[in-house]
Amino acid sequence: MLSGDAVALTLHHGLRRAPHRPVIIGPVLAQAWRPDPKTVHAFSGYLKDCTVPQARGSAAPMQGRATANVGCVACAKTTTLDSYKRAGAMLAKAVPPGKKRPDAVDASSS
Predict the structure, then answer these.
(1) How far is residue 58's CA from residue 24's CA, in Å, rounded to a whole number?
(2) Helix H segments across 4-99?
């Protein structure tokens, strides 16, 4: 979506009108997040329209509601967006041995 794909942009803008925000799973955010200015600028624009389940600092899952339903897994806040962003920054600098590729789950547990 960061490349400006027309279909992805249309889908994202259509989802803005839905009552529940689009969901980005934390490890997926960490896998895609890189601290270079171009990525941060583009991704931050999309991220403000989405919710990251269980992440403190994320937008509320339901649009127009400041509080969340604590019984909802997507609404419960147990970590922070910065945690996922730090994991992504670590992945950008990682030099794993051999053919192993950096993985967001590995970085999130560090």
Answers:
(1) 10
(2) 6-15, 26-32, 37-47, 81-93
Helix (H, G, I), strand (E, B) or coil at 98: coil
Task: Give the Cα separation of 34 and 50 in Å (integer).
Answer: 18
Closest among 86, 85, 68 to 77, alpha carbons compared:
68
User: Can you tell me the distance from the alpha carbon of 110 to that of 95, in angstroms, rounded to the nearest whole number?
Assistant: 15
Mean pLDDT by 10 residues, the chain (110 residues): 68 78 86 85 84 84 67 66 84 78 65
Which of the 8 DSSP states describes residue 67?
S
- Which pLDDT value is given to residue 1? 46
Distances (CA, A) of 17 to 14, 63, 64, 86: 6, 9, 11, 30
pTM: 0.55
